[in-house]
Design a protein that fits this description.
Belongs to the glycosyl hydrolase 27 family. One of its GO terms (molecular function) is alpha-galactosidase activity. It is a single chain. This protein is of the alpha/beta class. It contains nine helices and 27 strands. The chain is 17% helix and 30% strand. The protein binds 2-acetamido-2-deoxy-beta-D-glucopyranose (4 copies).
Length: 541
């Protein structure tokens, strides 16, 4: 369901202790869901055609084996016994018959419901489809009796019958209630928590509540590159929470839909796969281009997604407005690296192996399948506009790790001007905030060593400016860095969390202009917006 409004949320700390150990989703679930192609206008004919399409196109043999419902299948009133109903218009032969058909193809069947009074819809909350709030135990039993293998559980009308979208609902308890109701059915039903990232589900711990949890507002429809940028930034602080049985859900795939170029669709798929997101195709399978189908059928990237280690790629380095480097480990000891070209034009991109900790490695291009042989120090290739490199790196030789001398932001050595001010985070951490909009933070007395020149800087910062809607910097903030009064260089810093007490350590930027000796300055500014709050900067020795 689509939510386009900006918001500023308080963090709800959920201090329960749960153990979701349902033995499901040991690798990210894969399948088909109608929403990005058909929103809530989902008919039985579409579901049957999609199920047949998964088989006819051979997608089921690659792992796409869930055929899931989304909004629009439900009835609007319960039956005489208080049970859940389907829309006889949308699903004329009924859910049990549809479920049997899906199972007869060797596929699994997924239900969709909502933890509120009514469910989400695509018409601003006026459809009033059934929700499961207060009926969790009987609804879970009904879904199990219909042969459900998966439940996507949405979050509309979570507090009452008039509040379509509430940004501070009791989501944790709603999802725990349904988790327990599903467990009581004794049927294995994968549980997909769909509360759009509100209240930081990766930290509920939703990893013990759901087999996956949405990390963000919807990817669409309509699809757009800006939506991908917003979701990629939002993933940055929570990659460590992906694990066997519990996954960061970056939302349904837009591969095959309008709004993204083929290069963008390729980047989208490679990133989602390597982030260990569930991979749900969400396009009309009867109208799929060969290029889009090839993206979805890439066995090498599917193998990365389904890798038994279950570790997500993590953010390594951003060259602002140029390229990102993300990487993570695979079970066989190799490393997968995704390098995204942020430029609006195709260009020569140089991947510096040191950004993933190697001086050399054997590489395979996961998009083409070609072996690239041994890469030494760097690899340069032409990458399409918003395209990417997706590399599997083996036999990596570790690069020497830089060491840093750190300078805290909130010390008397530094100059805080124009409104910049210290902020106590907790008993050990004080940061400098209100930098930007005229406020500046200047680190003084920075040691440029015996020769000065270009230095690698490492910033520790807090940015909880997260958003549902696309902004100038969606789920990120800009900061400008100037050394000794030189030309400011832009950093585009993703959120570090959803609350103003979670630090990201190690945002790297290489800056020229240092003088020998201890009289250097590093100034942080932004003429038109606030930067993140800064804890410290490290200067490479
Ligand atoms: C529904 O909840 C919203 C948000 O808490 C509240 O403002 C509104 O008054 C509630 N409406 C009813 C009818 O209870
Ligand atoms: C790409 O184009 C968009 C729209 O004109 C612009 O906002 C954005 O800054 C451009 N991106 C880069 C990296 O130049
Ligand atoms: C100020 O800078 C000097 C020189 O780098 C350093 O020795 C001192 O510890 C710094 N003081 C504080 C409070 O950080
Ligand atoms: C203070 O906050 C930092 C950053 O989140 C955290 O690592 C540290 O454990 C916190 N310290 C205390 C005493 O809470």
């Amino acid at each position: 369901m689509l939510l386009w409004s900006s918001l500023f949320l308080g963090l709800a700390i959920f201090s329960g202790s749960f153990a979701l150990d349902n033995g499901l989703a040991l690798t990210p679930p894969m399948g088909w869901n109608p929403y990005n192609a058909f929103s809530c206008d989902t008919t039985e004919a579409q579901y049957r055609a999609a199920a047949q399409g998964l088989v006819n196109l051979g997608l089921n043999t690659l792992g796409y084996n869930y055929l899931n419902l989304d909004c629009g299948w439900q009835g609007k009133s319960r039956n005489a016994a208080g049970g859940f109903t389907w829309s006889t218009t949308m699903i004329p032969s009924g859910i049990p018959a549809l479920s049997s058909f899906v199972h007869s193809l060797g596929l699994k069947f997924g239900i969709y419901s909502d933890g509120g009074v009514y469910a989400c819809d695509f018409v601003g909350g006026s459809a009033h489809y059934l929700g499961s709030l207060g009926y969790e135990i009987s609804d879970a039993a009904t879904f199990a009796s219909w042969g459900a293998d998966y439940l996507k559980y949405d979050n509309c009308y979570a507090v009452n019958a008039t509040d379509f979208v509430d940004y501070n609902p009791p989501v944790s308890t709603h999802y725990v209630t349904m988790r327990d109701a599903l467990a009581a059915t004794k049927r294995p039903i994968a549980f997909s928590v769909c509360e759009w990232g509100v209240q930081d589900p990766a930290r509920w711990p939703a990893s013990a509540v759901g087999n996956s949890w949405r990390i963000s507002n919807d990817i669409g429809p309509p699809a757009s590159w800006d939506n991908l940028f917003r979701i990629i930034n939002q993933l940055m602080p929570i990659t460590q929470f992906a694990k066997q049985g519990g996954w960061n859900d970056l939302d349904l795939l837009e591969v095959g839909n309008s709004g993204l170029t083929i290069d963008e669709q390729q980047t989208h798929f490679a990133f989602w796969a390597a982030a260990k997101s569930p991979l749900f195709i969400s396009t009309d399978l009867s109208d799929l281009s060969t290029q889009a189908l090839d993206i979805l059928k890439n066995r090498r990237l599917i193998a990365v997604n389904q890798d038994p280690l279950g570790a997500s790629i993590a953010f390594k380095r951003r060259y602002t407005n140029d390229h990102d480097v993300w990487a993570g480990p695979l079970a066989d000891g190799s490393t997968v690296a995704i390098i995204i070209n942020w430029q609006n034009a195709s260009k020569s991109v140089t991947f510096d192996l040191a950004d993933v900790g190697f001086s050399s490695a054997q590489a395979v291009d996961l998009i083409t399948g070609l072996s690239l042989g041994e890469l030494r120090r760097s690899y340069t290739a032409n990458v399409g506009a918003h395209g990417s490199m997706a590399l599997k790196l083996d036999s990596g030789v570790p690069a020497p790790a830089p060491t840093f001398t750190f300078y805290n932001a909130a010390t008397s050595n530094n100059t805080l001007a124009g409104g910049a001010a210290t902020r106590v985070v907790n008993s050990t951490i004080t940061v400098v905030g209100f930098v930007g909009q005229g406020g500046t933070l200047t680190f003084n007395n920075i040691d440029g060593g015996s020769s000065g020149g270009t230095k690698l800087l490492s910033f520790d910062y807090i940015n909880a400016d997260y958003t549902f809607s696309n902004t100038a910097c969606s789920n990120c903030r800009y900061a400008f860095v100037s050394v000794n009064g030189g030309t400011p260089v832009e950093m585009q810093m993703p959120i570090s969390g959803q609350s103003w007490d979670i630090i990201y350590s190690g945002y790297l930027l290489s800056m020229p202009g240092f003088k020998p000796g201890k009289a250097n300055t590093i100034q942080i500014s932004n003429p038109s917006a606030f930067t993140p709050d800064f804890y410290r900067v490290g200067v490479a020795n």
